[in-house]
Write a structure and sequence with these properties.
Strand 4 (129-130) and strand 5 (133-134) form a beta hairpin. The protein is of the alpha/beta class. It contains 18 helices and 13 strands. The protein folds into two domains: 13-140 and 309-352, D-Maltodextrin-Binding Protein, domain 2 (3-Layer(aba) Sandwich), CATH 3.40.190.10; 142-305 and 362-367, D-Maltodextrin-Binding Protein, domain 2, CATH 3.40.190.10.
Length: 420
């Protein structure tokens, strides 16, 4: 999950009105005549490679621009992409890793400001901006919450989505009693665990900038802090047997099928997961989406909007005009944001995810804030993986939860003493 700095007022005040330019928009660049040759595009959507959607996008772009060829690379683990970048050989169209700070953007990518049609329509363009140059644009924006199977809730006797943490725990107990796995963590995939350490702390704090305050905090992983409380919640889930049996050996692809069948009740993910669960065997009307109730406050739970992966163009590409044209087309012309179940990040396109209406009514939706360069550097120096799920894996693996928090505090403090 990513974080961004644009206010909700810029988005007509509603998730459902997040907008874009229209699916028929063709990519046009200031150097359109040079749109030719072969480019390689990086994607995290291994499912779309398997179902043929990525190949479909290639054909559509190649038809729009004769003489071009679009190839795809997909990944599951960010470290493989980082290795490519460190070696100086990486795809023409990239996804910006969360480890790349804004000042490092010019080291890897070329500015996209010449894509005036895109720049005039897209939100969040300042999120990957450095010294007035835009290096990345979001594929879509999203909001994290709990995706749940309504039939499973009904079987467990749950009549409405929980609005407090105590109610959430009580619902987990009811689901378990009904023979349903209350919530799948997807431990083995690791990346889904990142929500518990990079998204939920903001929710608990009710502060979009909370994560950035960790750079100056002493002992931010203590049990009484928003970070510590978030880790305590996921630890409580495991200790009560509310996660998958043998959760250390889970399978992301299988989890979606299990939730579609009602064998799993919930997952803490973005709204983008909803169409994937529907595809795996349940009607859209059977899937609900509510904000995670991280506290026992009786006000509406807070939720924060974020951009998903940002597209960028490799500064070393031999076909930069083609790569830029593809970026623009992918966001404005391909229909990908809605296909992926995301919230379109451009003016004029409404979300097609029906569950967003439910979420709007149950959440206090606020803007998110990007991770500062200082936080990104401190995460790297400390090797406390807050964004990729590694820190959550660590505490769940530890024989003593309290000692694990103390260890994280020590590693964080050591990194702070080194200047991040």
């Amino acid at each position: 999950m990513k974080r961004w700095l644009v206010g909700l007022s810029a988005m007509t005040g509603s998730l459902a009105l997040l907008a874009g330019a229209g699916a028929s928009v063709a990519a046009k660049t200031s150097n359109a005549g040079a749109i030719k040759g072969t480019i390689t595009v990086l994607s995290n959507r291994t499912d779309m490679q398997a179902n043929g959607m990525l190949a479909k996008y290639s054909k559509e772009f190649e038809k729009l621009h004769p003489g071009t060829t679009v190839k795809w690379e997909t990944f599951v683990d960010n470290t493989t992409v980082q290795t490519q970048m460190n070696g100086g050989k990486y795809p023409d169209v990239m996804l910006i890793l969360p480890t790349v700070t804004q000042s490092e953007l010019p080291d890897f990518f070329t500015p996209l400001n010449s894509l005036t049609s895109l720049m005039n329509k897209i939100y969040f363009k300042n999120f990957q901006e450095y010294q007035g140059k835009v290096y990345g644009v979001p594929t879509f924006s999203d909001v994290n919450g709990v995706v749940y199977n309504k039939a499973a809730f009904k079987k467990a006797g749950i009549t409405s989505a929980p609005t407090t943490l105590s109610q959430f725990y009580a619902d987990c107990a009811l689901l378990k009693k009904a023979g349903i796995i209350p919530i799948a963590l997807n431990y083995s995939a690791q990346w889904p665990l990142g929500n518990w350490s990079s998204s939920l702390p903001d929710v608990i704090a009710g502060n979009a900038n909370y994560m950035n305050t960790l750079t100056s905090q002493k002992d931010p992983f203590s049990a009484n802090t928003p970070m510590g409380k978030a880790l305590t919640i996921v630890d409580t889930i495991v200790k009560n047997g509310w996660a998958e049996p043998h959760f250390e050996n889970t399978n992301w692809a299988n989890s979606k099928v299990e939730e579609a069948k009602g064998k799993v009740g919930m997952m803490y993910l973005g709204e983008w997961a909803i169409p994937q669960i529907v595809v795996d065997g349940t009607p859209s009307s059977n899937v609900g989406f509510f904000p995670f109730p991280g506290t026992n406050s009786h006000t509406k739970p807070t939720a924060f909007l974020n951009p998903d992966w940002e597209l960028a163009v490799n500064k070393h590409s031999t076909n930069i005009p083609t790569a830029k044209a593809f970026v623009q087309w992918m966001v404005l012309g391909s229909g990908y944001p809605n296909y992926a179940g995301g919230l379109p990040p451009v003016k004029g396109i409404k979300s097609t995810v029906p569950q967003i209406e439910q979420f709007e009514s149950e959440a206090a939706i606020r803007q998110a804030v990007p991770n500062s360069a200082a936080l990104t550097k401190l995460i790297s120096t400390s090797e406390v993986d807050l964004t990729g799920g590694g820190a959550v894996q660590y505490v769940l693996n530890a024989p003593n939860f309290k000692a694990a928090l103390q260890k994280l505090n020590q590693e964080w403090s050591n990194a702070q003493s080194l200047g991040g």
